[in-house]
Amino acid sequence: MTRAVPLRSPARRPLRALLAFLVRRPVRHDVTYERVLGSALHLRVDADDEDAARSAEAALLAEIDRLEAVFSRVNPDSELNRWQARPGEDVPVSAELHDLLRDALDWQRRTKGAFNPSADAFVSAWRHAEGTGRPPLDEALDAAARAAGEPAFVLGAGTARVTRPGGLTLNAVAKGAIADAAALAAFRVPGVRGVLVNLGGDLRHVGEGEVRVAVSTSGVENHAEDVVTLRGGALATSGGAHRGFLVGGTWYPHTLDPRTGRPATEVRGASVLAPDARTADVLATALSVLPVTEGLDLVRNLPNVGCLVVTADGARHTDPVWCAHSRPS
Question: Does any domain span residue 93?
Fold first, then answer.
């Protein structure tokens, strides 16, 4: 039988310690992991106490592990790879994979092919060119672009069928989707007030407060074009002039236009604000390829989405949503 200890008992705690125990102060928990989905992961949790914050961290990591087993292109046992190993079959797939495949087809259509889940085939061709010292042949790129223009799979009711085997990857949409799901898993833990996830540059914020983020489309350290205030939304950036392909002494930008297989040179980088990281991730990729006017038109027709596009000459192009949440750095 448990007995209450009278306040005047010699065994009582000092009053200050007792009040500290009863009135727990909110905590901020920051942690960084390397080599998560091939990137760095930073997590910030605002919670009622340290136990809630650490439970949120555990929930987030478990959700990332669960979805990596679905979407990973590197893991041969992932659901994505096991499905691709059965071309021509209507294979039952999980709700997560079916949903992401549907999104990939939808964005391929909406961006007129600027986003394409088959784009990694071109990356492989340019990596091979680095080894040989000769750019890919025009005829080979043209043939690959024509093939990539057709859907690589078709969806049924809970099923998916590979129609064009070879190199399908969902990286440009899966990373954002995982950031969303992981942030929400952490936020659902009782006692958690706010969560910020930065998964390889894809940011998702949920809950209380706001975050100020320095945005650099060039990828150059300590150089930022804008500072964005993020409140319960997502931010993704695609760009980085220091990345690319060195072929026979010539430098080619790393962003490839999946409609041609050739480097996209008009846009230096693009950042996107959106309600969720999945949308921000896809659009940042597409805006790095689309002509600036087409990219801005696409964004303006999407609710609560804003963008910053910086062209090769350094010119800035924004929209009202972006301007409402940012200021020049």
Answer: yes
